[in-house]
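Good morning,

Attaching, inline, the backbone tokens for the sequence recovery test we're adding to the shared suite. The designed sequence is right after.
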């Protein structure tokens, strides 16, 4: 089976490649850097339709996993080029190559598409009308809407909205990844700089995420649907930090910095995963403590 992945060099992409290799898949990477265990197709510009069409035509993928995205919203043109139009060009390329009714497609959205959530809207269901408040969420929602408009009965496409994915290799721009980096840089004692710790989020293990993504893209009942990728539970950030400090065995003092706090920082945020479980059946999610323990052990 030939699997074309965008964003293959990212946190989730690397774990997906590892998972798919165990399924005897042939991995193709469309991006701006070579990735181990994949065949590379160069794409330096997400708006390069010719390169995208050429790659899709040559690969003839059985699966397309579109993970590419950017959280950098300083350049609005680039934000929409990567988070919105890149996906539409991939779908267009499938149609141009006569693969639109052959290739199974997954578009990776974001829980940010839902926007600001009040406590009475929890848990966040896929039926909740999205109202993103930042450019990242807006651009990802636009991709979702384009993807759903492309879907037809003979086209196999599913959109997933991951909540907070954690695990080995998570990037430093994520709060937990940043805390880990700080903790690992401290020898025996020191200071951990944090933002608001009085919040709770829905964390899902990256290995679970990779496993569930593969199950969903191969489930015909998921096609044409938007599905939350989450555990359906919230974990207080302070519990996460305290566990990491305890596991490190170091004497570390917590300091909250105002510049690390975010505007519109919701106190409680977690998804409804009943739709996910109805599609895949019962699933034993990895506990957040196990994920953090494995992450800190692998980071040493």
């Amino acid at each position: 089976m030939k699997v074309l992945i965008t964003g293959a060099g990212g946190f989730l992409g690397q774990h997906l490649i590892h998972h798919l290799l165990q399924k005897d898949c042939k991995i193709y990477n469309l991006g701006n850097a070579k990735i181990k265990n994949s065949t590379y197709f160069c794409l330096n510009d997400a708006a390069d339709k010719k390169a995208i069409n050429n790659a899709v035509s040559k690969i003839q993928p059985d699966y397309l996993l579109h993970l590419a995205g950017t959280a950098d919203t300083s350049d609005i043109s680039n934000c929409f080029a990567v988070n919105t139009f890149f996906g539409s060009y991939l779908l267009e390329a499938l149609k141009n190559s006569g693969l639109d009714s052959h290739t199974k497609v997954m578009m990776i959205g974001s829980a940010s598409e839902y926007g600001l959530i009040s406590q009475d809207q929890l848990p966040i269901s896929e039926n909740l009308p999205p109202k993103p408040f930042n450019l990242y969420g807006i651009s990802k929602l636009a991709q979702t809407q384009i993807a759903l408009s492309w879907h037809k009965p003979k086209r196999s496409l599913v959109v997933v909205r991951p909540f907070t994915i954690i695990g080995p290799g998570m990037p430093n721009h994520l709060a937990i990844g940043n805390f880990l980096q700080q903790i690992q840089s401290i020898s025996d004692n020191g200071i951990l700089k944090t933002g608001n710790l009085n919040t709770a989020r829905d964390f899902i293990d990256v290995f679970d995420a990779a496993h569930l993504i593969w199950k969903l893209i191969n489930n015909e009942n998921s096609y044409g649907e938007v599905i939350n990728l989450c555990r359906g539970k919230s974990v207080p950030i302070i519990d996460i930090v305290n566990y990491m400090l305890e596991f490190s065995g170091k004497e570390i003092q917590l300091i909250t910095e105002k510049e690390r706090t975010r505007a519109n920082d919701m106190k409680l945020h977690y998804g409804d995963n009943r739709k996910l479980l109805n599609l895949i059946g019962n699933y034993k999610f990895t506990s957040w403590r196990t994920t953090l323990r494995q992450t800190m052990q692998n980071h040493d």
